[in-house]
Amino acid sequence: MDGRERKPLVNPRGNCGVKTMLIEQTLFGTTDKVADAIKLLRDHEPPEGYYLCFSGGKDSVVIYDLAVKAGVKFDVHHNVTTVEPPELMRFVLSLFPNNDIKESPRFTMAQLIVKNKIPPLRNIRYCCAELKERGGRGRVKLTGIRAEESPRRAKRPKFELSPDKRTSFVHVIKDWSEHDVWEYIRENNLPYCSLYDEGFKRIGCVLCPFQNFASTQRDLERFPAIVDYYRRACRKSYEVNQMTFNKGRQTWQSGDDMFNWWINERRGRYIAEDCNSIPLFSEDDGSVL
Question: pLDDT digit string (tens) for 6-17?
Answer without folding.
Answer: 667 766 555 444
